[in-house]
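ok so I'm stuck.
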Amino acid sequence: MLEHIELFFKSIFIDNMVFAVFLGMCSYLAVSKKVATAVGLGAAVIFVLAVTVPLNWLLDKYLLQDGALAWLGEEYAAYNLSFLSFILFIATIATMVQLVEIVIEKFSPSLYNSLGIFLPLIAVNCAILGGSLFMQAREIETLGLAFNYGVSSGIGWFLAILAIAAIREKIRYSNVPAPLRGLGITFIITGLMGIGFQSFGGMLTGGDEAPAEEIKTAETIEKIEKEAKKEMDEKEVSYNDVTLKN
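replied:
not stuck anymore, here's the structure
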């Protein structure tokens, strides 16, 4: 359970797709002018990641890895289909994006029109493919953790685009210098938000490392004190011997 909680918060705040690795920046910058549009696209990204990352985990586990085909028989254990990872991952993502596009067009035509070309472009959104590739590179062990990683990565991207959309709506009424209006001030705000999100890095690591360092320091000090005391005792014994002889 602790592993799931750690992965969830780490994927949202520390390894955020936008602020940590700058994936999905095209949609992030282009569809973040209105909060309503950002919410729609963010929800679509969460859904696509939540479905494609576990599906691609299954493909990687039982089809693509070296020796993954052993379940078909011993003669297939030597096969390695990892070179097909990009093709199969993108095929899975494209299928789910088409499903999302059909559903949104059916039930929310206004949102479909506002998203425009960026809705089908989710299929080639590097944040979506990055989720599956990071899942593969980090060797996530179980299907549950893969689903957790997909959902939490989507939520991290959703929070990023929602935050920048809310700021861009308010900043229209601010006196921004002319050379920085538009994408200029957006890049600056994104950088500052990235610094803020990186400050969460100590949330999962600082608490574990600090006690170990304190214990090590205490042991070192204790060792130095013992050696100093031993040396002083030896000098005192030598001094007493010299005094007695005289």
